[in-house]
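Query structure, 300 tokens:
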């Protein structure tokens, strides 16, 4: 059976109409190319090229065989390229976990930008206020706010954010504007999340150690619900600055205590720094690190 090398040599001779030119293009000697052609013809028991004159002439059977060889060689070339693309082109699934608050940022625009750059990658997105177990649940990357407690994870700080005590103009019109955080808790309807340790969080906000009552507060298990409720004038709450920047600028929400500094929290990008990092994971990690720095606190 003829080898692919003989097929390539034959096709080169036909296309260049010269054994010498074919030899040069294949980086072989003219005698080696001539021997390969003779070996191919002997194996097929067919004359493919008439070499009786100075100018080479392809025979009718040679012409037919050339078309078939060309098709086979192109098919092999395409298959080789497809295999290379499979190895070098990122493909597969990325699982991301992040809190609801990041839905009101440019995070989705970033994910969309990345997916357009790497069309072979699919995403599974998990938005939850309850932190997922990154390693045990097969999560590739997680965005987290606040303290971290898993030493197995690599944490890149993206930026710092600060809580702002806010209410809508319609709420202020109805119930007035608190002059302190303590007054907001004592005399106003607070919108508070149930997905945090309320006792600890409120004590940190108020800077107190004694007990207190939250019987007037509205409790909610979703950051999105809290945001919608404060926008509708249901009460007073504290949200992270980057998540309400546009509403503060438009006047839809009012910073009730602009002179008071509430606790600051960090936003982290987490991943399991394993020995082998798939190309999809490496690309997304580098993409996020390139897009963000600590000096772009409100751009996420």
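Result returned for the query:
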């Amino acid at each position: 059976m003829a080898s692919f090398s003989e097929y390539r040599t034959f096709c080169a001779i036909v296309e260049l109409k010269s054994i010498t030119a074919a030899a040069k293009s294949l980086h072989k000697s003219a005698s080696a190319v001539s021997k390969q052609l003779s070996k191919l013809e002997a194996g097929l028991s067919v004359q493919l090229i008439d070499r009786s004159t100075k100018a080479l002439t392809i025979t009718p059977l040679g012409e037919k065989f050339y078309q078939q060889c060309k098709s086979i060689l192109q098919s092999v070339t395409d298959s080789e390229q497809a295999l290379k693309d499979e190895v070098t082109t990122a493909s597969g699934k990325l699982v991301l976990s992040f809190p609801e608050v990041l839905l009101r940022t440019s995070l989705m625009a970033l994910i969309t930008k990345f997916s357009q750059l790497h069309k072979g990658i699919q995403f599974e997105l998990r938005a939850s206020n309850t932190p997922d177990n990154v390693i045990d649940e097969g999560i590739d990357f997680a965005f987290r706010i606040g303290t971290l407690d898993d030493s197995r994870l690599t944490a890149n700080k993206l930026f710092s954010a600060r809580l702002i005590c806010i209410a809508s103009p319609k709420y202020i019109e109805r119930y007035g504007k608190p002059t302190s955080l303590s007054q907001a808790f004592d005399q106003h309807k607070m919108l508070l999340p149930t997905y945090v340790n309320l006792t600890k969080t409120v004590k940190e906000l108020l800077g107190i150690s004694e007990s207190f009552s939250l019987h007037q507060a509205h409790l909610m298990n979703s950051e999105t619900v809290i945001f919608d409720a404060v926008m509708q004038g249901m009460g007073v709450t504290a949200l992270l600055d980057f998540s309400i920047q546009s509403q503060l600028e438009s006047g839809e929400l009012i910073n009730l205590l602009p002179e008071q500094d509430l606790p600051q929290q960090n936003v982290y990008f987490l991943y399991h720094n394993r020995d082998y990092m798939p190309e999809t994971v490496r690309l997304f990690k580098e993409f996020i690190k390139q897009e963000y720095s600590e000096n772009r606190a409100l751009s996420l």
